[in-house]
Design a protein that fits this description.
Length: 474
């Protein structure tokens, strides 16, 4: 059954009619059973999640694995329906990539296998260090990957023994509610715990602030823009913040240009450039610049000329804030390359994934995290100039950087200079998250607070237990 927005809204309304007005009753063990994680306010959601956490911590590790297996199964088996639902609701990105993200997170999100016990023994006995849950985690999720972020976070957070309350982006709330409902229904049926994943059905800035300040929220995880990240860091609680990025690409004179072109298109066009790790601007050494542009055309991207780029810029970049700074226009974020081309006065096939063109380094498409499948290419005198510009326009986010080169010295130099959380050599951006490269997958990449690509370990506390002068048997 394909669920449209009206059907989802009716599900939300039905559950809220039964659960939403109910006052919080923390002393009643069964107060929120049957809610399946859908709540009308932050207080009830945290109370229900706290009860679910208390139930989970009494269960063996095997039950955490069972819960995770349920989330994985639903994400994989329902990826087409839920992915298309998210596409319809948000109206940004590409439907095939919405589907693929849910399937991939179901398959590759790290689980309980990441939790490891350390042991030290010596003349004075034995000490073991184990990973313990925080309790209830408050999570903020973005419109760019609403249910995928919830899915990946839920796997890692529950693997660590926690429960989570999600305040989703308002423009992705309906698919968040539907996905969380499905997770909880099956978990309650198979494991006997409801509300391990809770969601605020009508999220607001006020509900986010209430979550941040709630006494039973032990940890905050934000995947979103800088403003909500700052709010989390100012909450007085530990916060894990996945902040913005503006990933640069450097192409030097030794690069395999055809491979570089294929990779830039694959990464820069993925979900219409909504990924925070996606290629946003490319700095190419002058000696191979024209050859690189030809390689992009051979690989299927469509080149815009200066007049066309200017026309696109006039509608796709806007000025916001008291300081009138450049920002991506919402009407063009995550739209197809054909839409951007039309705005530039060019007709391209619907199958075209990416448009590109030459700009100077001061162009707003270089400096702004635009999240559109248009990639600006900038000439550099040499690789040192390219790296210097890449460092400047990455803005010190220390998020993601990419280089195409066969020169190990150049790779090393750029890696040291940019000091990013993710650094990709000779591949598309997604390879850094295990999609075509090695490693595991998470959509919460905590650069500002330093945790990096999050895992179950990220959402746990370290606890040490010591036996003095005993139990060392060797």
């Amino acid at each position: 059954m394909q669920l449209d927005e009206n059907t989802i809204r009716s599900v939300v309304a039905q559950v809220l009619a039964e659960v939403g007005p109910m006052p919080s009753m923390p002393d009643s063990a069964n107060a929120f059973e049957g809610s399946h994680g859908i709540f009308g306010n932050a207080s009830d959601a945290v109370t229900a999640a706290r009860r679910a956490f208390e139930q989970l911590r009494e269960r063996p590790m095997e039950d955490r694995k069972r819960v995770i297996d349920i989330i994985r199964k639903i994400s994989i088996e329902n990826c087409e329906e839920l992915g298309l639902m998210e596409m319809r609701e948000t109206g940004i990105g590409r439907p095939e990539h919405k589907i693929e993200k849910l399937r991939a997170l179901g398959e590759l999100s790290p689980g309980t296998e990441f939790l490891q016990t350390k042991a030290f023994s010596g003349d004075h006995g034995l000490a073991i260090i184990e990973r313990a849950p925080f309790g209830v985690i408050a999570a903020i999720t973005p419109v760019t990957h609403s249910l995928p972020t919830i899915t990946g976070n839920a796997v890692s957070m529950i693997a660590g023994g926690n429960a989570v309350v999600v305040n989703p982006h308002p423009s992705g709330r309906l698919v968040a509610v539907e996905g969380v409902r499905r997770f909880n229904e099956e978990i309650a049926r198979e494991v006997g715990i409801d509300n391990l994943i809770c969601v605020i059905a009508e999220p607001t800035l006020e509900s986010a602030a209430e979550l941040f300040g709630h006494r039973d929220v032990a940890l905050i995880c934000v995947t979103g823009g800088p403003a909500v990240g700052r709010a989390a860091l100012n909450s007085g609680k530990r916060a894990i913040v996945a902040g913005p990025g503006n990933p640069p690409v450097v192409v030097d004179e030794t690069a395999d240009l055809d491979n570089a072109a294929r990779c830039i298109i694959q990464g820069g066009a993925y979900d219409n450039n909504l990924l925070c790790i996606a290629e946003k601007e490319v700095f190419v050494v002058d000696s191979v610049f024209d050859d690189m542009m030809a390689a992009m055309r051979r690989a299927g991207a469509v080149q815009l000329d200066q007049a066309q780029i200017a026309k696109l810029t006039s509608v796709a970049i806007t000025q916001v804030g008291d300081d009138n700074h450049d920002a991506a226009a919402k009407d063009y974020i995550g739209k197809d390359a054909a839409v951007l081309a039309a705005a530039a006065g060019v007709k391209v096939p619907e199958s075209c994934e990416l448009v590109f063109g030459e700009t100077d380094e001061h162009h707003p498409f270089v400096s702004v995290e635009q999240m559109m499948p248009f990639i600006p290419f900038v000439r550099a005198r040499d690789v040192d100039h390219a790296i210097a510009m890449a460092k400047h326009y990455e803005h010190g986010f220390r998020h993601t950087a990419i280089i195409h080169s066969r020169n190990v010295h150049n790779m090393t130099k750029m890696g040291k200079e940019l000091d990013t959380t993710l650094y990709v050599k000779n591949g598309p951006c997604m390879a850094s998250l295990g999609l075509g490269g090695e490693g595991y997958l998470s959509f919460s990449i905590a650069g500002p607070t330093g945790e990096g690509v999050t895992t179950p370990d990220t959402f746990t506390r370290e606890r040490r237990c010591s036996m003095i002068d005993e139990l060392r048997v060797v």
